[in-house]
Amino acid sequence: MVAISKSNGQATLEINLRTEEDRSYPIVIENGLISKIPEDLKERNLGKRFAIITDTNVSPIYGTALEKDLKDAGFMAKRIGFPAGEQSKSFEVLEYLVNELSASGFGRDTTIIALGGGVVGDLAGFVAAGFNRGVRLIQIPTTLVAQADSSIGGKTGIDTKYGKNLFGAIKQPEIVYIDPLALKTLPPKQYSWGLAETVKHAIILDAAFFGYLDQNTADVLKMTDDVLFKLAETNCRIKGTVVEADPYENGLRRILNLGHTVGHAVEMLSSYTIPHGYCVAIGMLPALRMANKITGFPLGDINRVEKLLDKFHLPTKIPSGISTDDIINATALDKKASENQARYCLPIRIGKMEMFEHQYVIPVEESIVRYAIDASRDRSDILDSK
Ligand SMILES: NC(=O)c1ccc[n+]([C@@H]2O[C@H](COP(=O)([O-])OP(=O)(O)OC[C@H]3O[C@@H](n4cnc5c(N)ncnc54)[C@H](O)[C@@H]3O)[C@@H](O)[C@H]2O)c1
Ligand SMILES: [Zn+2]
């Protein structure tokens, strides 16, 4: 009920919108799932008119068949594609997609299917948040980054000329369908970028999973069916656990930033020429070296992580063209910095993160940051520069 209070000629009406909305949703994982999705959708009440938003790479591999299968199952379905790549996370492509939906006759009863990697998920999710003030969203992630990370948590958005992901919304999907076998068509580099986030997940919350990755490197690289299923299931459980405990990113969710403080600095200082996944791998080693000094993270485990990243074809050394001073200055601009002292997410050991004043970010003295960065360079680079 609207409460009204009046005093001195002023009326205040209280519009009470307190809700206890349940935004829970399932993540369904099965090898070969993509072709079964239309049948599954018949069992769920998630709409009859599907707009499949996808990019130019994924559209011919999985989009054409999905559109046909949805139609064969009696649904209305249309694919709307945009050029693959991060540069499509733009106002222009957003505008194109929104207009294309209207031009195709889609309205309030639309269900948007985001079919593709993180770029598709972020863009299509944002379209779903805004089209007709919000329509249903289904995520079908097809990269390891998307299956492990971006399809869970509800963050969507685009880049602006001032930076990445600066304009967006939180939009939770109705369901996430993961077909781990879809990764088999992924270029190897793209797979390894997802492995960087996967190793990060193992370090922050799951020592047994780290052991599994360590013992099954050959099968991980071969992308065996069992491994792909295990990666999807475990990554989703870890990211899901963190998101569930901290949907608004006040505390625990920060542990997902392991490796990202130095990583973001390297990414920015390379003018985004080094892909994010490589930067996360590069950023992980300095963080672990800081952890060694501050939380006693074992030196032997630093070696294990370094060897594992190396086997996954991920870089572990800070590029020689990027100076320690520049990294330190850039991390001071990072959103986790406060009072000019950079704060880091640091593990105590593999599978357990350190807390500081009930937070998972720990202020680190500059001398330790400097040591950790310098120690994470290729020794031959250091000798070369002398
Ligand atoms: N929302 C979040 O929480 C979150 C989290 C992490 C990353 N992200 C965002 O995700 C994006 C990166 O995601 P990404 O690494 O998946 O990149 P991406 O979506 O650009 O996909 C990488 C490339 O692989 C192609 N591709 C996708 N699936 C394929 C398949 N199965 N077979 C063959 N090719 C395939 C794509 O067309 C693209 O060229 C960034 O924009 C990042 O900001 C968002
Ligand atoms: Zn990341």
Order the strands across the largest sheet as they lie in space. Answer: 3-10-7-6-4-5
Major sheet size, sense and barrel closure = 6 strands, parallel
Counting structural domains, the number is 2
Distinct ligand kinds: nicotinamide-adenine-dinucleotide, zinc ion
Looking at the structure, the CATH topology of the largest domain is: Dehydroquinate synthase-like, alpha domain
Mean pLDDT: 93
CATH superfamily of the largest domain: Dehydroquinate synthase-like - alpha domain
Low-confidence stretches: none
- Give me the number of helical elements: 15
The share of residues in extended strands comes to 15-25%
The tally of beta strands, per DSSP, is: 14
Walk me through this protein's architecture.
The longest helix has 21 residues, at 225-245. By secondary structure, this protein is of the alpha/beta class. The protein contains 15 helices and 14 strands. The strands form five sheets. It has a six-stranded parallel beta sheet with strand order 3-10-7-6-4-5, sandwiched between helices. Helix 10 packs across helix 13 and helix 11 packs across helix 14 (366-374). The protein has helices at residues 37-43, 58-72, 91-103, 118-130, 144-150, 188-205, 207-215, 217-222, 225-245, 260-269, 276-294, 299-311, 324-333, 366-374, 379-384; strands at 3-7, 10-14, 27-29, 49-55, 76-82, 110-116, 136-141, 155-160, 163-170, 175-178, 343-344, 347-349, 352-353, 362-363. The chain folds into two domains: 27-185, Rossmann fold (3-Layer(aba) Sandwich), CATH 3.40.50.1970; 206-379, Dehydroquinate synthase-like, alpha domain, CATH 1.20.1090. The structure holds nicotinamide-adenine-dinucleotide and zinc ion (ZN). The site of zinc ion (ZN) has 4 residues, from helix 11.
